[in-house]
Amino acid sequence: MKTPFAILFACNLNRVRSPMAAALAGRLFDGAVFTDSCGLFAAENVDPFAQAVMQEVGFDLAEHRPKTFQDLRDSSFDLVISLTPEAKAWAEDFASGRDMAVEHWPIPDPTLATGSREQKLEAYREVRRDLERRLVARFGRPSTPGA
Asked: pTM for this one?
């Protein structure tokens, strides 16, 4: 698949992995690709550790409002990327009968991390780095003008 026009990232609660992935993909594509995220269930708000590690690299997730597949205003995605085993089945069902590809990227749940605050933050940073690596591996690095 060439670079899609619209990508949906899906996880369980749309408060950690999927909003992180959508933000990172938005930067990778510099706004040329529409990105969104959802979960199987909607949490109250974004996870504070996810918010903190994304702020470290210039993203503000404070305005993100978790939503579900049912809450999506648009369903014209070229690609749905599920980030959890649970979201994989929902993504396949969502894409069924539509011209939409589905990929599954198993991303560990950093909310299960234990230890000090710093150890927990490091688990979230590893998720952020994993998502960045997967995005670049899948779509390549963006070209720069004059390069």
From this structure: 0.93
